[in-house]
């Protein structure tokens, strides 16, 4: 594997220096601000939240299947309403995979979805493929969160097989990332997973644009982008070993979405200032 240039190595060190000081509570805040968790309905939240007593009747497996399905079709979304529409369509009393499919038919298969016909049909087929799979059936009936923690890598690989996608494809990594976050937000540690330690960040348009701006280069290959962020994580992990690519992916998503992103892209030394801006509403 090629080494980074001295300039890129220096930038990776600067970014790592700022990231390693982010506290666990701040990471949780960032996770909760992702669209799929910021808009999450009450019945999907942890039962420990006393305001959400109905959650006690929803097995963790059902929450996992719902979130995984949403992530599998979270691509080429033109607006920020995808997760809002997704959750709104689901009845909290849904008891079967068929019932879930009926609830989401209009979201993915309806002609008023404002999506191109080809993409609409593709998402409808992906929904049906996942919900008809043996994996979805097994997860739906599983109540014990420990099953998901202990079999995390197996679920990751089975999901890629049942969807006929690479384990490293964007939507598979997004789905497995969201499953890990669902576990974390139920007050459990991240699963000890080969996925988190060996896999690079899933490169989408946002991460590509952000990384190319940081490195002041265009047309970077996915491998080059992943190599840079792998180096950042390697440097961070020397001080904060629990920081995974899930953390980095989440942070990049927020920074790249920030109104202040120009500040970080044009003046790399201001990264710390931008990160602090992200936490303002958490501190108030």
Can you describe this structure?
By secondary structure, this protein is an all-alpha fold. It folds into two domains: 6-28 and 198-283, Endonuclease Iii, domain 2 (Orthogonal Bundle); 35-191, Hypothetical protein, domain 2 (Endonuclease III, domain 1, Orthogonal Bundle), CATH 1.10.340. The protein has 18 helices and no strands. It has helices at 6-19, 24-32, 35-38, 60-72, 82-89, 97-109, 117-131, 134-140, 145-150, 152-162, 170-184, 194-198, 205-215, 222-237, 245-257, 261-266, 271-278, 280-283. Helix 4 (60-72) runs antiparallel to helix 8 (134-140) and helix 4 (60-72) runs antiparallel to helix 11 (170-184). It is globular. The N and C termini lie far apart (45 Å). 31% of the residues are buried.
Summarize the structure.
The chain is mostly helical. The chain has helices at residues 6-19, 24-32, 35-38, 60-72, 82-89, 97-109, 117-131, 134-140, 145-150, 152-162, 170-184, 194-198, 205-215, 222-237, 245-257, 261-266, 271-278, 280-283.
Computed over alpha carbons, the radius of gyration is 19 Å
> What letter string, H or E per element, gives the SSE order?
HHHHHHHHHHHHHHHHHH
CATH topology of the largest domain: Endonuclease III, domain 1
CATH-defined architecture of the largest domain = Orthogonal Bundle
Descriptors:
2 domains, Endonuclease Iii, domain 2, Endonuclease III, domain 1, 18 helices, mainly alpha, 284 residues
Topology:
Blueprint: H1 6-19, H2 24-32, H3 35-38, H4 60-72, H5 82-89, H6 97-109, H7 117-131, H8 134-140, H9 145-150, H10 152-162, H11 170-184, H12 194-198, H13 205-215, H14 222-237, H15 245-257, H16 261-266, H17 271-278, H18 280-283
